[in-house]
Amino acid sequence: MKDQNFRNGDAKTAIFGSNEMLQPSPVDKIPDGPTTPQIAYQMVKDETFAQTQPRLNLATFVTTYMDDYATKLMNEAIDINYIDETEYPRIAVMNAKCINIIANLWNTPEQAKWKSGALAIGSSEACMLGGVAAWLRWRKKRQAQGKPTDKPNFVISSGFQVVWEKFAQLWQIEMRQVPLTLEKTTLDPEAALKMCDENTICIVPIEGVTWTGLNDDVEALDKALDAYNAKTGFDIPIHVDAASGGFILPFLQPELKWDFRLKWVLSISTSGHKFGLVYPGLGWVVWKDAKYLPEEMSFSVNYLGANITQVGLNFSRPAAQILGQYYQFIRLGFEGYKAIQQNGMEIAKYLHQQIGQMKPFVNYSPEVVNPLFIWYMKPEYAKTAKWTLYDLQDKLKQGGWMVPAYTLPENIQNYIVMRIVVRQGFSRDMADMLLNDINSAIAELEKLEYPTPTRIAQEKNIEIKGSVFTHTGSGRKKK
Ligand SMILES: *Cc1c(COP(=O)(O)O)cnc(C)c1O
């Protein structure tokens, strides 16, 4: 007799001839029984099928391309838990080698064979570790002086990434924000110092501000801070959030002082999975010297004479990213990284120039210092336009591109901007395809007879003040 049960799923079942493909996927409850791996695979795969191709996602900073050998190495290490150092001691050593290499890219003065740093799951964890270390150092000093420790604060520009809001809330450390303005597009050192006091655990400049792509001037801050610390007797340090810049500046602007060459820079964090060119999640934090890493945060593992310091918020974590990072260092070398970052910059500058010449747009900054930039609609064009950048975002999405539109941080939240991040995997040819699509989208939007819903909503929400749109419905959370 013919087997009439095959539709329940067995080796003979055609995936799309199975009963499962007639059922909704589980939402609340684990299914009663098993499903064949082929069908389960297809169901999970298909849930993400309609998503943007990662390489067309120009919103993300995170790596979407690695070569086949890197991918193979990482896939082969998918079953390794980093924390099992006793079982996989070579991974811990490889991790320490990566920290050494990064510390030296940032000009560490530390002489020890193994530099002081930590692996993290991304910049978020790395920033937290840098921030917690600054807080513990400050607390210890205050305790020794018999002074209160209940009101710590840190100072950062309003262009901070959300991790700093998390840091402030999770550790209950007050975040003092130096506002960014159209004239002052990066952290103003003098304004930052005005916010400091005896309870300031650190100042956090950003290299590669997420919102704008610009760099805070760490050298100027360091100089001003040196005078301030001398005058006040404080010793407020700097933690640099170099999530993007940490892997751009050493290659493209090696003469620029933003790192451990500066006196008050005691720790730096970066994302290995951004311009470190590794798939997520990977971050790094490095301290200038072991003495700046509080003992409470670290425990030492001795293996084959190597004293490996382990620091982190997580216990179990994937090891594959460490292999990926070490592979990239060997595969590319300094010159290889430089070539990739340079290409990214060239393509970003090309896009910046082309978009800056389009009738409706103006670039936020004339400079491109990291391979990303933002632009907005010319106020005089915006006044009569029937569309907004949100409509352009939607149009580009139809072609598979993800180019985000968003409003800037407080004080300049009037501005709806669009951002492009150029990463490894984005070529000049792709840039031309994107420019074509932007031009066609604009041509279509200009033919509109009636304003789009986002334009109508904007009209309701905004008052035109001078040449600037005041957009009251900022998407950003206000405290
Ligand atoms: C991306 C980013 C972060 C957070 O990094 P993750 O690696 O995504 O955790 C922090 N700060 C800045 C400036 C960033 O750009």
TrEMBL record:
Q: Which BP terms in the Gene Ontology apply to this protein? A: L-glutamate catabolic process
Q: Which reaction does it catalyse?
A: L-glutamate + H(+) = 4-aminobutanoate + CO2
Q: Which GO terms describe its cellular component?
A: cytosol
> Upper lineage ranks?
Bacteria, Pseudomonadati, Bacteroidota, Bacteroidia, Bacteroidales
Tell me the protein family, please. Belongs to the group II decarboxylase family.
MF (Gene Ontology): glutamate decarboxylase activity; pyridoxal phosphate binding
Provide the positions where the record notes the PTM N6-(pyridoxal phosphate)lysine. K274
For whether the record's keyword set contains Lyase, the answer is yes
Q: Which cofactor does it need?
A: pyridoxal 5'-phosphate
Q: Gene3D superfamilies per the record?
A: 3.90.1150.160, 4.10.280.50, Type I PLP-dependent aspartate aminotransferase-like (Major domain)
Q: Record keywords: Ligase included?
A: no
Fetch the InterPro entries from UniProt: Glutamate_decarboxylase, PyrdxlP-dep_de-COase, PyrdxlP-dep_Trfase, PyrdxlP-dep_Trfase_major
Keyword tags: Decarboxylase, Lyase, Pyridoxal phosphate
Quote the Pfam families the UniProt record gives: Pyridoxal_deC
EC number(s) from the headed UniProt entry: 4.1.1.15
* Protein name in the entry: Glutamate decarboxylase
Question: What CDD domains is this protein classified in?
Answer: DOPA_deC_like (cd06450)
